[in-house]
Design brief:
This protein is α/β, with parallel strands linked by helices and 410 residues long. The chain contains 10 helices and 18 strands. The strands form 4 sheets. A 6-stranded mixed β-sheet has the order 11-10-12-15-13-14, with helices on both faces.
Amino acid sequence: MFTPARISCLLLALAAGCASPSKDQSERTPPSPGKGAAWQRDTLSKPQATSTNEWLPPVFPKFTNAPAAKLPGSNAPATNLPPPTVAESGPAWIPLRRWIAGHHGSEPHLVAKLPLPTYGFAVGGKVFGVQVGSRVASCNNVELHLGFAPQVVSREVCVHSLDLKKNFEALLENDFAAADNRVVVIDPGHGGINAGARNVASGGWEKEYTLDWARRLAPLLEERGWKVFLTRTNDTDLSLGDRVAVAEGHHADLFLSLHFNSSAESGHEQPGLETLCLTPTGMPSDITRDFPDNPREVFPNNAFDADNVRWAMRVQSALLKADGLADRGVRRARFPGVLRTQKRPAVLIEGGFVSNPAEARRIASAEHRQQLAEALAAAFGELEVNGQKTEAAVTNSTSTRNETRTIPTP
């Protein structure tokens, strides 16, 4: 059982683990692997717009020094709690305290009353936070966007059953779907006449930066024992269907689509990194970019909802360690056609805003793109697959692919 003091210690440790790397790395060009490197030689709906919904940084406190307040409905008095709001009761809403107890977690504690009642709790070695009336939550101090805002029902803080199943319970599991071949397809967004967003600092195009990022990432993943293929290795315009076909043709275990973000609204120089995965059926997307969003739709990739959010959280957590990136969270969307028909875990990464002058200057820097590649590669370290931990050996060679070794779980 986790105590409030233990929760604070965990959060402080997590915060310490997210320190930015050193800035004294030398500027490097993407390493060129040997002639036989699969990602270098393999090239095989309209691409989505790069503008995003208006976003303001959420006021979401880090869960440290949490006061010992009880959830509404507990036996102990809690005079410092806000008055309960009225919400429609139903089987979709599950009391948070009951769900935590069923998973042998810690008693949730009120960590902030304003601007919204915010609760922190620990379950299964992970620290979560929720805000009553807001879809912005957190897992291990990384933003997580829910499908439904938690509500107070009969003096109990309740979370929607879909969020409990598709977000919280999925993240409690460390296991990933079996990756027999450890094959990853990297998709550098845009290409050819589909240039993507323009960098306001350098005048460069998104398509150039995504390809460079992918070329830097590929050999780093090969060092970790993955077979790597790119959907494009040059300035080629591919349809979304062609990009999916590359993953199908190589029986990929994972699909990563690399992008950079842009805000079309003048005066809103939005910053930050976000990782998108497909919205589960029955849940509204938290980001739509003016595309239709039908919660009843079922796509092939919905069969991988749990792995999608686990990979998205893993990727987002790793990338936040790159220099100068703000956290826009793990988010759900239906509009990316490159994700919907994937028959494997798939995520789309927005590696920062080329419309934000300060962030655009960093994105234009080869040093920063190398940092992004190295941070993302770190997400492919030790994985738990079918109850066993796999640890990829890493060498300094960019042309040698190392075999993974399996370490039985105690």
